[in-house]
Amino acid sequence: MDYSVTVSQLIEKMNLKNYTPEIDTDKVLIMDPGMNRPAVQFGGFFEHFDAGRIQICGNVEHAYIKAMHTEEENIEIMNEFFSYKPPCLIFCRGLEPYEFIIEAGRKHGVPVLTSDAVTSAFVHEVDRWLHVELAPRISVHAVLVDVYGEGVLIMGESGIGKSEAALELIKRGHRLVADDVVEIKKVSEATLLGSAPNITRHFIELRGIGIIDVKSLFGVECVKLEQSIDLVINLEEWSKDTEYDRLGLEDQYTEFLGNRVVSHNIPIRPGRNIAIIVESAAVNHRQKKMGYNAAQELYNRVTQNIMKGNAKKED
Predict the structure, then answer these.
(1) Which of these is catalytic: 141, 171, 272, 289?
(2) pTM of this structure
(3) At what angle do helices 162-171 and 274-289 cross, to 10 degrees?
(4) DSSP state letters, 218-262
(5) Which of 48, 246, 269, 312 is catalytic?
(6) Among positive and negative, which fits the CA dihedral 50, 51, 56, 59?
(7) Distance between CA atoms of 55 and 117, rounded to whole angstroms?
(8) 186 annotated active-site
């Protein structure tokens, strides 16, 4: 499925000035997160022109247009440029677009915009925003909580206690991102970003009580709009016939949109404090990212003791 944003959303997000207000920017869609600097196209070369991208102009392109052609040639080139129907043309550094550019944009229905931002900074910010907004995504039945800065996705069958665990984590000072439905976006090959649908944002469903508003009950510091997903906790009913990992020497993974995330299967029994287990898993995961693996350390100690014992027997 292809996702898009409108040029109106871009204008609002980046605080752009619109020189072609007669064009309905709500109907102009951006579907490619890439951007193009059209200096070559302004020279009249349109082979391999990536017209589906936002077109960005800085000092170089602005000066080139003025210096390299007569006005008649510029009008002809601009009409050809806009005939490819790029989503929009944006001038950075507060540069005023020439009148013949504005007229060509109006003629072909392509918005001409300006930004006061420095070109490189503007490109970086738009690139970051578009890669999030246009990222492939899925929805999963889960709870997402920010625990010590680690995004923990709590999964499991309906009624197993995901929301109750999230509520206990909130009471312990952590932050809710989403309950029941989590929208996961793949913003890069290494990063998954989770958020809540607008309609359920900041709400938790507790069986026997109903819907509670976390933001209203516990304060704005207890909620978060989005969070990278760093760890998956799968809650499951305890079974005496199931072998559970007791050392954690080898990581297990859950895959979303082609990205793998470290996961743990946590068996549920009466008396187990799931919130403390989730906290410990999050801290342990952070330790591993910093280079310390407790399971490996224990394994090394046991191995060294065995080797020492064998050496004494040989003596």
Answers:
(1) 141
(2) 0.81
(3) 70
(4) H-GGGB-SEEE--EEEEEEE--TTS---SS--S-EEEEETTEEEE
(5) 246
(6) positive
(7) 15
(8) no
Residues ≥6 apart with Cβ < 8 Å to 249 = 295, 296, 299
Q: Which of 44, 5, 11, 239 is nearest to 134 (CA)?
A: 5
Residue owning tokens 């499951």: 236
For the record, the structure tokens of 146 come out as 């920010």
Beta carbons of 247 and 295 less than 8 angstroms apart: yes
Exactly one of 162, 175, 185, 202 is catalytic; name it: 162
Structure confidence by residue, pLDDT tens digits, 154-195:
999 988 889 999 999 999 999 999 999 999 999 999 999 999
**Is 180 among the catalytic positions?**
yes
65's enclosing H/E stretch is: helix 59-68
Q: What is the average pLDDT across 37-47?
A: 90
Distance of CA 44 to the CA centre of its chain: 37
Active site includes 246?
A: yes
Count how many residues are written for the chain. Answer: 315
